Amino acid sequence: MSIFEQHESNVRSYSRRWPVVFSRATGSHLHTEDGGRYLDFFAGAGALNYGHNNPTLKKVLLDYVGNDGVTHALDMFTTARRDLLEALAEVVLRPRGMDHKVVFPGPGGANAVEAALKLARTVTGRSGVVHFTNSFHGATLGTLSVTGNSQHRRAAGLPLTGATPMPFDGYDGRHAPDYLARLLADPGSGLDRPAAVIVETVQGEGGVNVASPEWLRAVADLCKRHEILLIVDDVQMGCGRTGPFFSFEDAGIVPDLVCLSKSISGYGLPLALTLVRPELDVWRPGAHSGTFRGVNTAFVTATEALRTYWTDDALEKSTRAKGERVGDALQGIVDANAGADLSARGRGLVQGLVVGAGLADEVSAEAFARGLLVETSGPHDEVVKLLPPLTVSDAELAEGLEILAESTRVVLERAG
Asked: How far apart are CA 141 and CA 210, in angstroms?
């Protein structure tokens, strides 16, 4: 593996956690060039909700390329773009009473968030944005400004302005957005009325912190009363990760802007969308641009994923049921290690086992040695974070949870 050390930047991270060379991937497994096999509870950081090389999606992709379908087209009209827009409207938006228009902002989640922030400021004429403690919205300058993690923010190399952090649900014992409400209502608070509030319903990078439906509704109500636009960053938690297609559905809210990426392409191909209410679509032509707004291969797999998995509620029900199973298993690990100050939290198939700073990395390493990929999250990397494919089988789920339980037991025994 010396070629990677010699020629690739030190900035790489996941390859340090899992120092092997992967050569093949199928379903819930990654395979290495030397014959190793790993159960994947990382799933491309949530970009592979339907597994690796999903056969249904692979077929339409190969057919499209084999028929010389347009690959790159910026924002020119193509049959693939039309098919995706039709599927989004028919399968996702109209059934949920949403009339949002679709922005193709670029290839990644940060592009979707940047577009949302930029449009919110354009529409309102205001510059400030409220975000929340332990938030993560991307690694560009704009998205870093609304990110809470100090390590990520320091990487910007210059002051990050235009954003104000507020307590997320449960932070420091707070379970209502009363502090934000008080600041918005008080002309002496020093908080100018912002253009937008941006929120994750579950903070994945922040430590699998779950916002309650009540808290989300209260935030949405505050935004409405003060004429502030509400942005939900559903880059990682959307496309069914928590159960329903959008993670905010259980709260009964409809954001002004929604950011999607990761699994929206269905196949791990680069694609991002920003959904905006029609009255907010005030951009002039070309006001937000980019070369890779038209990756048509991603359009094709995204369309097939929507029509295969979201025309009924089968996947949603399956994800909720599997999520309960994972939650019960994690609580079982907590109960089996009483006195170790563990805890479990999550929704659907994003689940976290809080084991403590340092120990979570050890659990991840121990799990890797036993054939399971799991990452860590939280401000101190204190949480073992589980993101298995939504298509994971019951047997694979049981295998992964058994490995996690054993890995946790070994690490805790080693730590005394």
From this structure: 26
